[in-house]
Amino acid sequence: xxxQEIAIGEPTLTERFGRQTLSARIWIGLQEHELWFRVQNxxxxxxxxxxxxxxxxxxxxxxxxxxxxxxxxLKMMEGLEEFRQIFCEWYPAFHPVEIRTVxxxxxxxxxxxxxxxxxxxxxxxxxxxxxxxxxELTGLxxxxxxxxxxxxxxxxxxxxxxxxxxxxxxxIPLVEVETNLREIxxxxxxxxxxxxxxxxxxxxxxxxxxxxxxxxAASNSYPDFSAFGSHPFTDPLWSTEExxxxxxxFYTRRLHKVEEIxxxxxxxxxxxxxxxxxxxxxxxxxxxKCVRTMVALRIVGGLERCRTFPGGLRMWDVRxxxxxxxxxxxxxxxxxxxxxxxxxxDPALERALKDGLSGRxxxxxxxxxxxxxxxxxx
Length: 378
Description:
Blueprint: E1 5-8, E2 12-16, E3 19-28, E4 31-39, H1 49-62, E5 65-67, H2 74-90, E6 99-100, E7 115-119, H3 124-132, E8 139-144, H4 153-170, E9 174-179, H5 181-185, H6 191-206, E10 211-217, E11 244-248, H7 254-262, H8 265-270, H9 288-300, H10 315-320, H11 326-341, H12 347-358, H13 364-377
Parallel strand pairs: 1-5, 5-6, 7-8, 7-10, 8-9, 10-11
Antiparallel strand pairs: 1-3, 2-3, 3-4, 4-9
Helix pairs in contact: 1-6, 3-7, 7-9, 9-11, 11-12
C-alpha cells in the first residue's frame, strides 16, 4: 500500500442468521482496517458509496489521495466537489484531495425504493423530526457504535428496548445498525465537529434497497449556521441517484422543538439526550446536555412529565454549566430570554442561568469548590 493514499478494497456482502453485513478492507497509508456495517432488518446495498462517505473526510484530513475500486454515483461525485470546497473553507486543516474513481453508468443504477426513513436516537431533534414526518416515514434507523460504544452492551440493550417501544407506539419499524466506523475514524477526526454527518450519510446509503429518502435531524438551527459535522449545506451533498439525504428541522430553534415534543407522551416517556451516560445511566441528569435539556423542559412546563430524568434539575448544576462554545452560549442565552418572556416567572432558574453565562463559579474560590464537588461526585 502507498503511504500517501487511503485505499478502499472491494466490498463484501454476507448474510448469517438473518443479518446482512457489508464489509471492506481499508488502508490508511500503511495501516489496514476492516470496516463493517451489520443490519438485522431487510436488505442493504452491495455498493461502494457507504465506504466513500466513511473515508472521504479521512483523506481530506490526512491529505491523502482516496482510491476507490469501483465506479460511484455521478451525483455523489458532483456533491463531493462542492463538499470539499465548503469544508476546506470552514476548516483550514482539511485539504482538497484527489479521488481516484469513475462515475457509474446510468444503466447500473438500481430502481428507487419506496420507503422513507429518519435517523432516530430518542433525542430532542430526532423526536421532533419523527413528529413532523410521522405520516411520511416507513422506517427509523438507530446506529450502535456512534454515540454508544459497541462494547457497552448493557446500555445498548436498554436503549434498543426504549427505542423499540417508541417505534411500536408510532407503528414504524426500527432498523438497528451496528458498525465499527467510529472506532476507525476517531483517531483522525473530531466526531461532533467534523465526522458525524458523513458517518450518518454512510449508513443512509446502505439502505438504497429500502429507502429513497433519509432524514438527518438538525442539531443547530437557523440562523446559527456555524461550521459543524452535520449541516444543511453539506449533508445533502452525500446523496446519490437512489438515496436522497435531507437535513431536517434546521428552521426550528431547539427550545421550540422541546415545546413541541413536551406535549407528546411517548417522547416524555423515552427521551434520551445524554452522551456521557455516567454509571451506565440512560440520562445522567448532570452533564451539560442533560442540564440544558432539563432547563428547556422546565421553561415549557414539561420537566415533571418527563420520566427519563429521575435525578431532577438542581440549580447548582445550572450555575456550574458554563457554556464552553459559542453555540452553547447561544442556546443558554436563548433559554434565558425565553424564560424572561413567559408569564410564568421562575426567579431561581433565571438567576442560575445568568450565573452560568457569567462564569462566576468558574473563577477564584468558586473554581476550587467546583473541582472539589466533581471529586466528591466521582
